Amino acid sequence: MFYKQLKAFPEGFLWGASTSAYQVEGAYKEDGKGLSVQDLHEPKDIADFKVASDHYHHMKEDVKLMAEMGMKAYRFSIAWTRILPDGDGEVNEKGIQFYNELIDELVSYGIEPVVTMYHFDLPLKLHEKGGWCSRNTIDAFVKYAKILFETYGDRVKYWLTINEQNVMINHPNAMNPGRIPTKKELYQQCHNMFVAAAKATILCHEMVSNGKIGPAPNITAIYPEKCNPADVIAADNWESIRCWLYLDVAVHGRYNSIAWVYMEEKGYTPVIEDGDMEIIAKAKPDFIGVNYYATATVSEARNDGTDCQPRNGDQQVMIGEEGVYRAAKNNYLEETQFGWLIDSIGMRVTLRRIYDRYHLPMLITENGLGAKDKLTEDGCVHDPYRIDYLKRHFHQAQLAISDGVELIGYCPWSFIDLVSTHQGYGKRYGFVYVNRDEKDLKNMARIKKDSFYWYQEVIKNNGLSE
Ligand code: BGP
């Protein structure tokens, strides 16, 4: 086997964990919060996002647990609708106060706040006025961004603009209650998000001293099924359309030619207004947030009406696109209980590809294992599968660092159990168990899983001990 000298995780490495507002907070219309598109979204037969893990009412207890685990960073999102209930109208002081208290609490324990400005929860009022298809949403986002930088910029140095813009474009169901937009509309939404994120990036640099800001897309290496060159082209194309498009615009300030030609051929090109590309080119991210779960494997499209074969609606499962690519099986990889591939080496591949293309520091903003965890009679949650999963991925992260990749931190999904986008509490990711299930809210007690204690050791040692 090829010998590789392992480098240590750098000093000050941001070992952390992630959540997002609508999946963890609950209190969906308390203290002046407006509704977001997620508050209308009630996944079939499963818990909705209205109570979630009730973090809104357990905030101090939760942050104490973060400190006990030793977390150096906490990546969370701010609910736009707590700050501006209508998306662009009056400011809600109680919402401002909640995040002030959360940030103060984190800082008091020496935990670095890493804030996602927008994680799937567009204010419903903006959605009703056209959502991201409308340029007004760009202005609303800029107004919201100014408030965030002004209010929290003294304590928050790490900012993420938009979570998984590429997932919102490729899997629009959950973000668009009512009619699903056409692809043409989706690529217009996408362009408008690029402009909004670019404006926020420029503002952050103007308003937050030492502020660092970047995008947080869901990136994954795409493998060709065979060494058949036609499969390689299909994999290249899909990687450019699904992944690089989003980082090329954010970092290089331009659409890549493969994605642009794809949009032209399909009739999806967005309207680009005068000045948009200048703003996009001027905005320079400081780092890249990477959500990585699994690689995908594809083969050449047949273009015979069978390329798209929907399996389930999950964001991580590729389904194919007519004339573009076919989803293929990768016999080298195992799957989770939910059909997501487990590919730790693929994470190293992905990180290397990103670094080669952009040469920016990276922060892993999501990665983790969704499983059907059980609270056992001994009052514990034994999750050796999660420990095994993370161990393998941490090892590959260390190998990537040893390859020269600049990795500044690792925030697994998720700090605590929260509502999964499709499977409610039947699919858990946390280091901390929340004692509730789909229908029964029980007592919402927080219970440390075995992985909690394991991760605590990893953080203490600044890496894996074996
Ligand atoms: C990412 C999202 C997260 C989170 C995670 C796990 O795509 O950014 O919000 O939900 O996936 O996904 P799921 O809950 O579907 O298992």
UniProtKB/TrEMBL annotation:
InterPro entries: GH, GH_1_N_CS, Glyco_hydro_1, Glyco_hydro_1_AS
Keywords associated with the record: Glycosidase, Hydrolase
Residue numbers annotated as active site: 366 (nucleophile)
UniProt cross-references to SUPFAM superfamilies, sorted A to Z: (Trans)glycosidases
Keyword hit for Calcium: no
Family indicated by similarity: Belongs to the glycosyl hydrolase 1 family.
Protein name, entry field: 6-phospho-beta-glucosidase
Annotated organism of origin: Amedibacterium intestinale
Lineage: Bacteria, Bacillati, Bacillota, Erysipelotrichia, Erysipelotrichales
This protein's encoding gene: bgla_1
